[in-house]
Amino acid sequence: MESDFKDKQRKSYNNMQTVYNVTMGLLILGIGLMMFFNEKIGLNLTEKFGGDSLMIYLFGSLCLLYGGFRLYRGIKKDY
Prior knowledge:
The longest helix is centred in the first third of the chain and has 35 residues, at 2-36. The chain is rod-shaped, with a radius of gyration of 18 Å. The protein starts with a helix and ends with a helix. 85% of the residues lie in helices and 0% in strands. It has helices spanning 2-36, 38-41, 45-48, 53-76. It has one domain (2-76). It has 79 residues and is an all-alpha fold. Helix 1 (2-36) runs antiparallel to helix 4. It contains 4 helices and no strands.
């Protein structure tokens, strides 16, 4: 009886963790893509933050890497 409850609780936790990882992965990937295409979107972040496009692209690539990792972790369900 108690093991059924713990199994159900563990399964519920794993499902919530999967949803959280996939959602955060997609959100962070979206931010990374927004950093790369900010000129085409009309944000013009280089003008707003002092003209340093290297930092914007560096932050965008870090967001893409971390977002991809979170998405992979959510799909793989290795926890």
